[in-house]
Amino acid sequence: MYAADTQGRFVPDRTSGNGHADLTAVSDADEVTVLLRDAQRSLSRVLADRIADHGVSIGQWYFLRALWEEDGLTQRELSHRVGMMEPTTVTALNGMERNGLVNRVRNPRDRRKMNVYLTDRGRDLKDVLMPVEAQVSRSALDGLGEAEAQRLVSALRQVAANLTGLRAAPLSDH
User: Fold this and answer.
1) Of 16, 21, 66, 106, whose CA is between 20 and 30 Å from 144?
2) Contact, 64 vs 129, CB < 8 A?
């Protein structure tokens, strides 16, 4: 059985009779990839819309999150934490510095390195933006029961753990 998706494409109907997704029907690895990508893009779009009101782009959001966890990271450490290429990080930090969110300070032990520190404004945004992220996350989980939401979080953590370090390793057939 097929149903039209949100863009009018016909795709296999993955619902059981009760309208809930039939997870046993998700057997194609390519479909998991597409579903995860679509969910991530949707979450990012909604979050980007909500945080834009506070002068923060979605790209800057990820750097702020990393710095809220550990202020004073080097630009390279920040790139790795966020999963961005270093030139992209430099561009984002330039904008964040212009907007008064961060300051870059030459590392006193290694003059080649720049450490990134939150300004008071950048630090204060945590109390404003983290509740926005929490609300978006709650909206994403709307319609799931507590146990389903916990299973989803657990499953996503497992997926991330499975993929950690896999980029350098050859894929095996499962």
Assistant:
1) 66
2) yes
